[in-house]
TrEMBL record:
Domain (EamA): residue spans on this chain: 6-140, 150-305
Membrane topology value: Multi-pass membrane protein
Cellular localization per UniProt: Cell membrane
Annotated protein name in UniProt: EamA-like transporter family protein
Organism: Peptoanaerobacter stomatis
């Protein structure tokens, strides 16, 4: 029964994460990517905080100095680096391409889980990963890629750091009396505090000019609340409360009870589900080239799913 609830959490995380690019595009560029991260993780962290404090009370656990260090590391990897780089990459490359590249965090997550969490990787999992990776690379078409190199580098960096974030989050939950909600909520708020430092530094002329000189104008003169109005507040709240608050909470609740390789299905399904959501809400049409790549991703995801279904006893 416990794993059945975890499976529901995987579905919820998948739906929320897959709708993120469409939500960002629907804002029509009203928000700076770093500004958007600051607001959404601040709101998401505050929403989860009452639940986190209640969990600490039930566990009769008092936070230690080492826990705050874990929150700082978690927040830096997720909020400051991974998500900031990811939302920034959407400004340089198509949102759909970013979603595909970011799905590569699955491979890093599974490799890191085998090293840090000692989770075994069987032959079928390797085959599933190889098929899905082929699908992702087919869509990106690196040998004839027409796009921004900065956008690709930002997105790949985001994927690597998110993999570290996910695996370390599960490791922290295993090695302490803190639940995933506690780690997620406090990690969000610590990350927001760290991000605020970056925002303040971006207003220093020398630093602002440096970012501009290397083509990272989104990291220069970052606003905090500018651009928010009645026409886009609902989109901002969906990203903050839904995608960030409920999405990440669901992801880590699933992480507590399922192997990383299974929860990583979220990011294999995302490249398939995201264009469907994009077509429904903003009428983006999927090309035949992308459909062929998505077919391989679906095949790999199915192998991964059924290989681990019996293991998790859902």
């Amino acid at each position: 029964m416990k794993n059945r609830f975890a499976f529901i959490y995987v579905i919820m995380a998948t739906l929320f994460f897959s709708s993120m690019e469409v939500a960002i595009k629907s804002s029509k560029g009203a928000f700076n990517p770093i500004q958007l991260n600051f607001i959404r993780f601040l709101v998401g962290g505050l929403i989860l905080m009452p639940i986190a404090l209640n969990n600490l009370k039930k566990a009769d656990y008092k936070l230690q100095k080492s826990d705050y260090f874990k929150f700082a590391i978690s927040g830096f990897m997720n909020v400051v680096v991974s998500m900031s780089f990811y939302t920034s990459s959407v400004a340089y490359i198509p949102a759909y391409t970013a979603a595909i590249i970011f799905a590569g965090n699955t491979f890093f997550s599974i490799m890191l889980a085998s090293i840090i969490l000692k989770e075994k990787i069987d032959t079928r999992t390797f085959v599933a990963l190889a098929i899905s990776l082929f699908g992702i690379m087919y869509i990106i078409n690196p040998f004839n890629f027409e796009g921004s190199l900065i956008g690709v580098v930002l997105c790949l960096t985001s994927a690597v750091f998110f993999a570290f974030y996910g695996v370390l989050g599960k490791f922290f939950a295993r090695t302490s009396n803190m639940s995933s909600i506690v780690i997620t909520s406090f990690g969000f708020l610590f990350g927001v505090a760290e991000l605020l430092i970056l925002i303040c530094l971006s207003h220093i002329p020398a630093i602002s000019d440096m970012f501009l000189s290397i083509g990272l104008e989104k990291f220069s003169m970052i606003p905090i609340f500018a651009g928010i109005n009645s026409s886009n507040i609902h989109i901002l709240m969906y990203i903050a409360v839904g995608v960030t608050g409920m999405g990440f909470a669901s992801y880590f609740l699933a992480m507590e009870n399922l192997p990383v390789v299974f929860v990583s299905l979220v990011f294999f399904i995302k490249p398939v589900l995201a264009p469907i959501i994009a077509y429904i809400f903003i009428r983006e049409v999927i090309s035949m080239h992308n459909l062929i790549g998505l077919m391989f991703i679906v095949i790999g995801s199915c192998i991964l799913f059924f290989t681990n279904l019996k293991k998790t006893k859902i």
